[in-house]
Amino acid sequence: MATTTAFALVALSKALSWNEALSGVFGSISLATWIFLLVPQLILNYTTGSADGISLAFLTVWLLGDITNLAGAIWAGLVPTVTALAVYFCFADFVLISQCLFYNHLNARREAINEAAAPPDSEEAPLLARERSNESIGAPGARRRSSTHLSHSSGARRDSLVKILEDDVSGSGSSWKRNTWSILMVILVGTAGWAIAWRSGVWRPTPNHPGDVPSKEHVAVGASVLGYLSAVCYLGARIPQIIKNYRDKSCEGLSLLFFVLSLMGNITYGVSILLHSLEREYIMTNLPWLIGSLGTIVEDGFIFVQFRMYARDSGSAVEA
Question: What is the distance between the alpha carbons of residues 232 and 68, in angstroms, rounded to a whole number?
Fold first, then answer.
């Protein structure tokens, strides 16, 4: 990230100060990160034909955070690009939630059909049920995984998925390289986007004089309340996912890249705000968004610990 940023700064005019340029670059990288954030989880759900790994409560609370963020942006009269991005967030959340509901309904219906089509009880049935029960409790998260093997074709797809997921959590093999390249491409797109916006005049640094920093009195009280409510939603959204991972003793069905991009987006967004100005009025004005972004870093870090811990418990190799 530092190398890419340095090249961008050298190529640009010296009219910008270092903190202005860095603030713009990190802000643009954060924007690119949020745009591509949900794509890895959408692809993983589609590939597996399941959304068992992700908590709907997590997505629902996150959607509430994005809705309040959008309402606050409109109420505060923020620039159109901020409002448009908030609209995109709500749309992306709706797509992911709809996909999860679709797969949950589809798999539940398939399971009901399989149970209805099961042969009548016989003398061997108790033995078979006992064998299935032993298999389901043999490893953490096995019960949830076995319930998704609803047909021969889906079973084959799940078997191939297990190896992919093990690569994801172990940080090795082609998956590690793919995730690394994805992160580098997001950084490149964000930096290039800012450079183009700066050269074309679309982006200009916000004045940073004491009299130009908006005070809290100039921000609608209702907009500030919505901003803090949005921050609370973002902070609370990951708690259901952390609890679900703990109960299942598994992170299977979750995209590691999804949480890596979330972490990177929160860090770059917070850094872009702090690099722009450290004046008290400016910090207080942006405090709700700082809390929502920087506060979730700890929770994302906890989920990374769960990825490694449950990968080790399931026997997957985890590299340092």
Answer: 10
> Residues 6 or more apart from 116 whose CB is under 8 A from it?
none
Q: Which residue has the tokens 């042969």?
A: 119
In which residue are the tokens 């093997």 written?
149
Separation of alpha carbons 298 and 188, rounded Å: 26
CB neighbour burial string for 61-74, b if at least 16 within 10 angstroms, e if fewer: bbbbbbbbbbbbbe
- Classify residue 215 by its DSSP letter: P
Mapped onto helix, strand or coil, the DSSP state of residue 285 is: helix
DSSP letter for each residue of 112-154: HHHHHTSPPP-TTHHHHHHHHHHHHTSSTTHHHHHHT--SHHH
Q: How far apart are CA 44 and CA 178, in angstroms?
A: 14
* pTM for this prediction: 0.72
What DSSP designation does 49 have? T
> The tokens 């093999």 sit on which residue?
173
Does 319 score more than 70 pLDDT? no
Tokens of 15: 């009219």
3-state helix, strand, coil in the chain (%, to 5): 80, 0, 20
pLDDT in tens, 70-98: 888 788 766 666 777 888 889 999 999 99
Rounded to the nearest 5°, which phi and psi values hold at 253? 95, -5
Residue type, 104: N
Q: Which helix (H) or strand (E) holds 240?
A: helix 221-248
For the CA atoms of 98, 102, 104, 109, the dihedral, rounded to the nearest 10 degrees, stands at: 160
Where are the domains positioned within the chain? 2-313
